[in-house]
């Protein structure tokens, strides 16, 4: 069932449209996330580089060189002056968690702390001279030459931070070390989280819109196609008068116009074919009537009576048109009955009577290739059925017999009764009417008898 569902054209079109829109929205969301977060992140990096550079250029390098790289360096006047400068900066910039200076040791990536002001956790501050593996951080190494900043959140012994770096130079312009400024990673995390929330909201709204728009667009595409499919099935079922209505000026509406034109041409061709067939079969009926001079004109009379009854009973004019043609052929099956049986003046034997009773079946088989309407074929097969179920060939009764077949039965019986046959003379009109009344609701449909009597 699931496989069949996903094979449906409408489902696949909807899925394709929704997938396309969702993909576009996701890519847009990803671009939005990257653009928004990276823009803010780069702004923060620029801020850190400028801040580190500003602090670095205000450092008194000769004073800095006076701090010995040992624990007692904390007790020097130079250390206290620079530390006081750092703390004023952290008070003015609450986002800063730590300011520190590292001195590069020639020939190694292990640098030495000169000053470390850890405002976030003073107990975590390190003493001058303690080593630090600067080789882990490329941006810190670059900070010896020019202001730099981490390109992502970095993790070291003091946790996750984002840092900016700037060179500190001596009197000769030669790099003495690097000044580093750390900011709270939580700020960056919250910024990223906010961007993610905004991006996710855009994605959710985009997906909902994609589903709605996808369904609407798909419906506009698949509904005309479904109309064409339905139309093809209806026409394939024999209703060549059916037309497909598709509004618009696109290719699908043009296809619908071509489809309707094709159906119209088929209907015309089919009508020509049917007319030719009827003309051919009517010629056969004429031949049949020439075989039996007693039934000359019988088919035309039956068709005329039946048409009058149909009008009286309010049968649709379009149905009456084909009904008249079929009534002309109601006895076509008699072409298969031997002359010795058909023209026999005396009583028929049981075997001969069985041959006669087969003529409705043979008539149906003759007309079936061209007359595909079951209601019309029933006229040929069932015009000798009786209202009480004792007729032939199928023993149908009451509601099982179509009203058109019942009309034909009354018209056929009346004309037969009022015509001379090889085995009896014709009845008078009054005698025939008496038989109709007598057999009303037994042999004949009562409503049809009442309509015919009103006409007579």
Structural summary, described in words:
Strands 1, 2, 3, 4, 5, 6 and 7 form a 7-stranded antiparallel sheet that branches. The mean pLDDT is 81. The protein is α+β, with helices and mostly antiparallel strands and 456 residues long. The protein is built from 16 helices and 7 strands.
Describe how the helices and strands are arranged.
Layout: H1 2-7, H2 9-57, H3 61-65, H4 77-92, E1 96-103, E2 110-118, E3 131-133, H5 138-142, E4 148-149, E5 154-156, E6 159-169, E7 175-184, H6 185-236, H7 251-291, H8 298-312, H9 317-328, H10 339-342, H11 350-357, H12 359-367, H13 374-382, H14 403-417, H15 429-438, H16 446-455
Q: What structural category arises from helix and sheet content?
A: alpha+beta
Which percent bin holds the helix content? 55-70%
Treating each run of at least 4 consecutive H or I residues as one helix, how many helices? Answer: 16
CA(first)-CA(last) distance = 61 Å
Low-confidence segments? none
Query: What's the pLDDT, averaged over the residues?
Result: 81
Major sheet = 7 strands, antiparallel
How many DSSP E strands?
A: 7
Strand residue content: 5-15%
Pattern of helices and strands: HHHHEEEHEEEEHHHHHHHHHHH
Gyration radius, rounded: 52 Å
Overall geometry comes to: rod-shaped
Give a short summary of the structure.
By secondary structure, the protein is of the alpha+beta class. It is built from 16 helices and seven strands.
